[in-house]
Amino acid sequence: MMYAKPTLLIWFLVLMFLIKEVRPRVEFTNLKCTSVDEDFAEFSQCTLKSINRTYKYVSVRVKLYKLPITKARVNFGLYKRFNGYKPFLYNQTVDGCRFFNRQKANPVAKYFFDMIKDASNLNHSCPYNHDLIVEKVSIDTVDHHVTNILPYPKGDYMLETQWMLNDKFAGEIQVYLSLF
């Protein structure tokens, strides 16, 4: 009895049935933290750490010198690189003190906060009597949000946050990432 040799088409069809989904992957590319008034607040840590080729994380620590913080406003904008970074989808300002009492009222801010909430001490309303810490936000957490919860098109992105604490511009954080 003779058997026919499998053709390239048959192998392709077998692979298509085995591969369920090809999904994009996210990678941190850069992190920048800028303190405006170092007598008020200073970034004591602003690191993008690469453990190996696939595992990276971001850590940010802000040392606050004028406590307590009773007013906190955060402006965040998402930018996509076209010919330079251009606004993409979101740019809004959130009252950080009121946000924790009514997170469902602002689903966009909640979406971005959910990426860092398990790795930060930003889990309560004002006043803040301590330094602000976001420790080891892994690329896996961001990847899950950006590819599964609310998928984005492939490309290079920057999430920029500007912080107003006690009505003073305290600083800015820019997180750069690629989705491919």
Description of the structure:
By secondary structure, this protein is of the alpha+beta class. The protein has one domain: Distorted Sandwich (Ganglioside M2 Activator Protein, Chain: A), CATH 2.70.220. The chain is built from four helices and eight strands, in the order H-E-E-E-E-E-H-H-E-H-E-E. The strands form two sheets. Strands 1-8-7-4-5 form a five-stranded antiparallel β-sheet. A three-stranded antiparallel β-sheet has the order 2-3-6. The model has no long low-confidence stretch (mean pLDDT 88).
Summarize the structure.
This is MD-2-related lipid-recognition domain-containing protein. This protein has 180 residues and is an alpha+beta fold.
Keywords:
single chain; 180 residues; alpha+beta; Ganglioside M2 Activator Protein, Chain: A; 5-stranded antiparallel β-sheet; 3-stranded antiparallel β-sheet; 4 helices; signal; DUF1091; MD-2-related lipid-recognition domain-containing protein
